[in-house]
Backbone:
């Protein structure tokens, strides 16, 4: 690769701090890899450093001695091949950049070591020996030393690696950033920079927004710049899209009958397009007249704010390196949002199942969350789940269900439809409507109860059959397959237990299961 800085500036220690440059007269991999490890750990957040092989130094001044010693041409290929093997001995794996440069008529090898994204790094004390003990190294002035004591503890705290969205990306170029999207964002958040977009160089605007990272000789745009202001971020993060799939009759009952729509673009564009589609095609307000009251009760099949919060969080917390879209499935019983991967392991499965608050110690895309908060698209860190549950409660809807796999490969959020907006509720309303006109409110209530009782008997039979096939099946799984609300399933299960038909053995969290006691009691 070509250097992003002039080689003479390195040799003269111009534009780069002296403690970020190390000269080596010859190829000594044991010592050199201590420095590579130290620069990768970047303990002082200086931006890594450079090692120049083939250059001797003046002991008094520390400056390069000219003309340089150089590295013979016949040794260069061998050194570069050795480095491939030695790089694999660093833990975790780290890849320094190398460049062969001509200086004073001779060849030198420049090893550029940017700060690693997966700190801390360790390396064997001697990479050329087998079974050599590994140590952590940091820079101390112009030397590389072993990290010990409190310094080692502090270095290990860097294990909370830099979030993906804040890392620099050499593939993102200035021309990939949309001025239209950038200015639209600045206008929405009320920034004074919005007036300067046309008159000020784009690079200056982005720098003021802290969207650049890395040392001054190799400034890189952060990943979040493409997430927010690139109209085609699939160029950098494949399958960054939201797929909305609608099954009118339910996925289990009629899997071949569905419609699918895909939304791409920047993160704000994806969110807006998805919510516009759901608002126009899915959300419906219902009006219920109450006897003795002038004002009717109003509620939605799904509250907009709850759906928006779930959609925003699915984008905010996704892994942009995984080539998997966000899948939103719409069925008569509810809306489910499947995201990859699942929550961080710092959040227990028990807390996830409770669905109250998921507080993470690490964020995949910390800066992206800040942008979305500025746009009022999310409340803030660790408030997504409480917001969803609160909006559902205000609407009179059942609570949302949060599930993940043991290996945390996926995260499923299920938002049940309002109980009075489901297909069975609509049927009950139609069947009792005529009775209301002829016999009054009391007869309507009685008719509805009879209808509900008939439905409950039929549903309970289905639940028993499903438990026979899978005793460990959960209420949310039953609800999804039957196309009814989770609350309805739980009501049936409770009645089956009260009649002595079913018995619950153990907790759902710890491998519990259903036991059928006596079918004659049903």
Residues:
């Amino acid at each position: 690769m070509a250097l992003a800085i002039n080689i003479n500036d390195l040799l003269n220690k111009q534009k780069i701090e002296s403690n970020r440059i190390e000269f080596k007269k010859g190829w000594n991999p044991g010592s050199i890899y201590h420095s590579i490890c130290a620069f990768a750990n970047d303990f002082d957040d200086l931006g890594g450093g450079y090692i120049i092989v083939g250059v001797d130094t003046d002991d008094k001044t520390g400056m390069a001695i000219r003309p340089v010693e150089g590295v013979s041409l016949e040794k260069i290929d061998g050194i570069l091949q050795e480095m491939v093997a030695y790089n694999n001995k660093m833990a975790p794996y780290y890849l320094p950049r190398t460049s062969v440069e001509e200086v004073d008529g001779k060849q030198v090898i420049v090893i550029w070591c940017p700060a690693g994204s997966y700190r801390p790094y360790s390396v064997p004390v001697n990479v050329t020996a087998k079974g050599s003990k590994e140590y952590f190294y940091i820079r101390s002035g112009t030397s590389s030393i072993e990290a010990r004591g409190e310094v080692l503890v502090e270095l290990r705290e860097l294990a909370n690696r830099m979030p993906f969205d804040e890392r620099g990306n050499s593939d993102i170029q200035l021309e990939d950033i949309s001025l239209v999207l950038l200015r639209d964002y600045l206008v929405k958040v009320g920034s004074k920079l919005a007036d300067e977009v046309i008159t000020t160089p784009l690079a200056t605007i982005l720098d003021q927004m802290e969207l650049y990272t890395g040392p001054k000789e190799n400034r890189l745009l952060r990943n979040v710049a493409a997430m927010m202001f690139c109209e085609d971020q699939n160029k950098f993060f494949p399958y960054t899209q939201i797929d909305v799939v609608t099954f009118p009759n339910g996925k289990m009952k009629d899997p071949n009958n569905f419609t699918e729509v895909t939304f791409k673009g920047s993160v704000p564009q994806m969110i807006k397009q998805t919510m516009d589609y759901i608002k126009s095609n899915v959300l419906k307000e219902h009006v219920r007249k109450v006897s003795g009251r002038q004002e009717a009760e109003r509620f939605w099949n799904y509250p907009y704010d709850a759906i928006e919060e779930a959609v925003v969080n699915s984008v905010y917390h996704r892994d942009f390196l995984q080539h998997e879209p966000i899948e939103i499935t719409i069925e008569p019983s509810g809306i489910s949002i499947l995201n990859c991967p699942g929550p961080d392991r710092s959040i227990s499965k028990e807390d996830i199942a409770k669905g109250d608050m998921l507080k993470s110690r690490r964020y995949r895309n910390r800066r992206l969350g800040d942008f979305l908060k500025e746009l009022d698209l999310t409340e803030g860190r660790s408030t997504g789940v409480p917001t969803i549950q609160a909006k559902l409660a205000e609407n009179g809807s059942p609570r949302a269900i949060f599930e993940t796999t043991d290996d945390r490969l996926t995260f499923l959020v299920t938002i049940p439809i309002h109980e009075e907006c489901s297909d069975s509720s609509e049927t009950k309303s139609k069947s009792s409507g005529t009775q209301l006109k002829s016999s009054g409110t009391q007869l309507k209530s009685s008719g509805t109860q009879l209808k509900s009782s008939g439905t409950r008997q039929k549903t309970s039979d289905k639940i028993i059959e499903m438990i026979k096939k899978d005793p460990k099946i959960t209420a949310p799984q039953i609800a999804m397959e039957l196309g009814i609300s989770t609350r309805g399933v739980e009501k049936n299960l409770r009645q089956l237990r009260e009649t002595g038909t079913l018995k619950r053995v153990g907790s759902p969290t710890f491998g519990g299961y259903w036991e059928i006691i006596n079918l004659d009691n049903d």
Summary: The radius of gyration is 31 Å. The CA atoms of residues 281 and 354 lie 31 Å apart. The longest helix spans residues 423-469.
